[in-house]
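Researcher: Sequence recovery benchmark, item below. Answer with residues only.
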């Protein structure tokens, strides 16, 4: 795979340490590129965030917990912020559903029977 100089854009051979045209270091750039390619976003983290945003609270909690567990075990996985956001949205949504159900239940129970 050819390497391009970050300073001048000249193509260099793989394995070259410095750019032949401007002399800039190519090693640091290739190391950063290889580290960024190796990391990937956890799919469960994405699912947790999306499910939390659309109101599928119990599923958001499940996917958030699963993704945090996987991210903790694999150093090449990203998405911790999305997993936490999905988990928080899922918890808040579940609390909201419980409160809404309680209010509706109380309202139904307090209605007069003859009406």
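Model:
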């Amino acid at each position: 795979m050819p390497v391009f100089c970050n300073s001048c854009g000249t193509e260099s051979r793989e394995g070259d340490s410095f750019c032949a045209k401007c002399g800039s270091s190519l090693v640091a750039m290739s190391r950063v590129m290889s580290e960024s390619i190796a990391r990937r976003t956890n799919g469960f983290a994405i699912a947790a965030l999306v499910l939390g945003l659309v109101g599928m609270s119990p599923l958001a909690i499940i996917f958030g917990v699963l993704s945090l567990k996987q991210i903790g075990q694999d150093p090449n996985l990203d998405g911790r912020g999305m997993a936490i956001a999905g988990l928080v949205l899922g918890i808040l949504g579940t609390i909201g559903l419980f409160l809404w159900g309680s209010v509706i239940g109380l309202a139904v129970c307090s209605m007069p029977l003859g009406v």
